[in-house]
Specification:
five-stranded mixed β-sheet, alpha/beta, elongated, 42 helices, about 950 residues
């Protein structure tokens, strides 16, 4: 076959090299009588392979059959080594077996080079194919070793007689399915339990698996005339080279619980079973998951990563590895650290991050919002570039190296093989990627000098005086904390608090660094003294929780943000002090990616519960509570920062509560079904109606939930199908009781919601759960006007959708009954007058935002009265339960003028805004009177009078004022 004309961009030296090597390969083919036909550009692809790889050249010369028609088909095949390895026949003779394994590895490795350099595979496929090749080799070598060992000693069994197999766990790039072309393979060997073999020469399982492990390593790593199959590294096992070659699961678990270090946690992130008993391997992973992924948000991972990076930097400096693609500045390891740090911190609470490969993990971190899209794009681009270049460097001579060659000819080969016009072009892009990665790594590892910044000497002096008891109020006031008495006293008490005195040495060091920083952060706030007082209480709460101290120590933005929130909102501060887990939400990069729709929140709760290792109701309730607190807290932050208005915030809080009720109902149904079974019929036949603020979609941060439970009465006399069957009435009663109890139960994470069920038929005297028929009959025949007002805001929030639809029809039918408008206005006005007399806390200087004249309850009563008076002739006003939307509907159908609607809209939004602000400041919803507030409320009273409502009694004060 004639050689094709070489591309003109090659230097003469390189062209001569490729021409000579191509000629040598053709000579080897002729000597072996292998015909080679240049169909589909085979010659050009061979030349391109020779350009990129001396290793491929040597294999072609030794195994020219790879260029025969069947060999070329193998080179071009998209199927990886697993397909061909399954039919690999190994001789019982060890020497022949080792030769077969090595020749197989060489052939498959050349296939990987051929496909990579000719653009048939992208980098993901190349790395995956390499990983699969070594898994195939491991599997074949382990099976041969098992056969040989069984013949000598029999099969290893546990005390119950169950056969045991070795578990081979792959780490690093092999575990991540992203192995370098010429990498070593990091392995840990384990087995499920002790016992002994069943042969005529029995061995203890521990000794058996050690010998089997040695045999496995010899088959792969011992040099022969054919070279080696794989470089095997077993140093990641417990105790490293000093540890036993293989350990039982129990010993593994004990080691990592007692001795495990941060670098081992990083290593286990990518670990997976790659050969042997993979089912048992997954059990081992589940056993060790709590070591790798902590239940809390683990910001101590920063320190561990920083220590590892320091060791790497020392090695780089000692060995002059600044240009090393893996370990040098801006190299592959820094990208891995950024992603794995996020996995370690958050993977315990977010199972979506428990993925092994770098690119899949980066994608998960970006999708979950933990790594910004711009940073993820930069890291992804750099990683792909660096891994392609690293792989090509190793493909050159099948050498385990990460260094760029020094000679010009090899650099030219790298550049042309990667489709760059020159080495200068490739080098320029390499430098840009490395600089970008270094910058991102520094920003993540030490954000704005976090963990290393030196606080002002004056703040260090304040903390020193607090520790030695010499701090006084005057000193604090001179430093900007007015009044200073309380702050000085509490700051002085902190070092002597029991929780602080019992801190570990490392946590004490963190606190010493942290306190001056917090003092400075509090001083920079609008309210320095309240902020610092709350921060001191927070330190007492987290003194024994190193992760939270680490968060504040490592993250300057977190310190500033926490101090600011503590200054602005007593309510949010108290939440953080009670649940320090919320500290993460203060700096959550996903703050603008909140799940705001009920379906999204419900999906997130389901995903959160799916992360639990065990389905335990108490633990699930605790996790639901943590989730609810987190979302509510972030909604509070958004409102406090003016990124969300009151109407949107109240609606989102209602959606959160609705999703939580649904999750608790699902949990209660599951537990009840386990005890008593299910009732016959489609669906659960149980529905939860939300009334009041929940039904009206304007829930506050501390609101209780008005709930009514209804069931399908047709199932009342049916019997459940479980081990302890009960009739339908009792089944539904117990379900409602369980939902109420779990919503109100105290857990480590607090209480979900206080629940009020007094709006059910017959109030507190009635049954906790009513049948549909009983509910409808009560609403038609016995309900008071105020109960129909309450029904206006009722909506289905959880449970059987079909039953919820039935109840929605009943609500419409009841509210659409023709009523005497004058009587409706009279009864609504009388009830409002009574409520105001009993509940209004307004006086000459302050105004009750909810119960005051022209307040939120007046607006509710106006809207509810209009619905009752006009729903029979304007049924579209029954389509919504929310006040803001109802105002628009009433205007659209002509029941409110534009001016009246605008007046109510503005008043409703402003009063709701002030009410939520009061809650965040831990104040009752009473505001100081201002001319603007008085004008706002007078407008509401004027609209009430215009619409015929008398909320003052006997045509009173409001009518006269208007």
């Amino acid at each position: 076959m004639n050689a094709p004309t070489p591309p003109s961009r090659e230097s003469p030296e390189l062209r001569a090299l490729i021409d000579q090597r191509y000629a040598d390969v053709m000579a080897a083919c002729r000597a072996a009588r292998i015909p080679l036909y240049d169909d589909a550009g085979v010659a050009e692809r061979i030349r391109r392979t020779l350009l990129a790889s001396d290793f491929a050249f040597e294999v072609f010369r030794r195994q020219p059959d790879l260029l025969a028609p069947a060999g070329l088909e193998r080179l071009r095949a998209s199927a990886d080594a697993a397909a061909r390895g399954a039919s690999l026949e190994l001789s019982a003779d060890e020497t022949a077996c080792m030769s077969t394994l090595r020749r197989f590895r060489h052939a498959e490795a050349v296939r990987i080079v051929f496909r990579d350099v000719n653009g048939l595979d992208d980098i993901d496929e190349t790395l995956s194919s390499t990983s699969t090749l070594y898994e195939t080799l491991l599997g074949s070598a382990l099976r041969w070793s098992e056969t040989a060992m069984h013949a000598r000693y029999g099969r290893p069994r546990d005390p119950a007689g169950v056969e045991q197999r070795m578990v081979v766990v792959g780490f690093g790039k092999l575990g991540g399915n992203e192995l370098n072309f010429s990498s070593d393979i990091d392995l840990v060997l384990a087995y499920a339990s002790g016992g002994e073999t069943d042969g005529t020469r029995p061995l203890d399982n521990g000794e058996y698996f050690i010998r089997e492990g040695r045999q496995l390593v010899r088959l792969l790593a011992e040099p022969t005339v054919d070279g080696i199959c794989a470089r095997v590294d077993l140093r990641l096992r417990p105790f490293g080279n000093a540890g036993r070659l293989a350990l039982p699961f129990v010993a593994m678990e004990q080691y990592y619980q007692r001795e495990g270090r941060d670098w081992e946690r990083y290593a286990w992130i990518k670990a997976r079973p790659v050969a042997g008993d993979r089912t048992a391997g997954r059990e081992l992973q589940d056993m060790l998951r709590p070591f790798v992924y902590r239940r809390y948000l683990d910001y101590t991972a920063f320190a561990g990563l920083r220590e590892m990076k320091a060791l790497i930097d020392a090695e780089v400096a000692r060995k002059d590895l600044a240009g090393n693609l893996k370990l040098g500045p801006g190299g592959i390891r820094e990208i891995e650290f950024v992603v794995q740090l996020t996995q370690m911190i958050r993977g315990g609470r977010d199972p979506a991050l428990r993925v092994r490969g770098l690119l899949p993990a980066l994608k998960a971190c970006e999708a979950r919002g933990y790594i910004p899209a711009a940073r993820a794009k930069l890291l992804r681009s750099a990683y792909v570039f660096l891994r392609r270049l690293e792989n090509r460097v190793q493909m050159l001579r099948d050498a385990q190296t990460h260094d760029i060659p020094d000679d010009d000819l090899t650099r030219e080969r790298l550049a042309l093989g990667l489709d760059y016009a020159s080495w200068h072009d490739l080098e320029r892009e390499l430098a840009a990627h490395r600089e970008a990665v270094s910058s991102e790594f520094a920003a993540v590892l030490v954000p704005q000098a976090g963990g290393t910044a030196t606080p002002p000497a004056a703040d260090v002096d304040l903390w020193t005086k607090a520790r030695d008891g010499s701090l006084d109020a005057a000193t604090m006031e001179a430093s900007g904390f007015v009044p200073g008495t309380g702050v000085a006293e509490e700051l002085t008490k902190l070092p002597n608090a029991a929780s602080v005195r019992s801190m570990s040495a490392r946590s004490s060091e963190r606190l010493e660094r942290l306190m001056p920083q917090l003092i400075g952060a509090a001083r920079a706030c609008a309210s320095p003294s309240p902020s610092l007082l709350r921060l001191i209480r927070l330190m007492q709460a987290v003194a024994r929780r190193s992760s939270y101290l680490a968060l504040l120590d490592e993250q300057p933005n977190a310190r500033r943000r926490v101090a600011s929130v503590f200054a602005d909102s007593a309510f949010l501060a108290e939440r953080v002090i009670a649940q320090p887990l919320l500290l993460d939400d203060v700096l959550d990069p996903r703050i603008d990616q909140l799940p705001l729709k009920r379906v999204d929140i419900a999906a997130e709760i389901a995903r959160t519960l799916g992360a639990l290792d065990e389905r335990d109701p108490e633990r699930e309730l605790e996790r639901i509570n943590e989730f609810r607190s987190s979302i509510a807290f972030r909604l509070g932050l958004a409102f406090n920062d003016a990124r969300a208005d009151a109407t949107a915030t109240a609606r989102r809080l209602a959606g959160l509560a609705e999703a939580v009720v649904g999750a608790v109902l699902t949990l209660a149904t599951r537990e009840l079904t386990a005890q008593h079974g299910r009732l016959p019929g489609e669906g659960s036949g149980f529905a939860v109606l939300g009334y009041g603020s929940l039904g009206g979609e304007e829930l506050g941060f501390a609101s209780d939930l008005d709930l009514v439970f209804v069931y399908d009465g047709k199932r009342a006399n049916l019997t459940s199908d479980g081990p302890r069957p009960v009739d339908g009435t009792r089944w539904y009663q117990r379900l409602a009781q369980r939902v109420m109890h779990w919503l109100d139960a105290q857990t480590h994470a607090g209480r979900l919601y206080e629940v009020d069920t007094r709006l059910r038929p017959d109030g507190s005297k009635g049954l906790l759960v009513a049948s549909v028929d009983a509910f409808e009959a009560y609403q038609r025949d016995r309900a008071w006007t105020w109960e129909h007002q309450a029904l206006q805001r009722a909506r289905h929030v959880a449970g059987d959708e079909r039953l919820g639809g039935t109840l929605a029809h009943i609500r419409r039918d009841i509210l659409a009954v023709p009523r005497d408008g004058a009587r409706v206005r009279s009864e609504v006005g009388a009830m409002r007058t009574r409520w105001r007399a009993e509940r209004d806390r307004s006086d000459a200087v302050q105004f009750d935002l909810k119960q005051g004249r022209g307040g939120l309850i007046d607006i509710e009563f106006i809207l509810q009265g209009m619905v009752l008076a006009h729903a029979s002739t304007h049924p579209t006003i029954l389509d919504t339960t929310a006040s803001s939307a109802l105002i628009d509907v009433l205007r659209d159908v002509g029941l409110l003028t534009g001016l009246q609607a605008d007046t109510l809209h503005v008043a409703h939004a402003d009063l709701l805004q002030m009410g939520l602000a009061c809650t965040l400041d831990l104040r009752s919803r009473v505001a100081a009177r201002t001319p603007a507030l008085d004008a706002l409320c007078q407008g509401v009273s004027r609209v009430a009078v215009e619409l015929g409502f008398d909320f003052e009694g006997a045509g009173g004060e409001a009518r006269q004022a208007v």
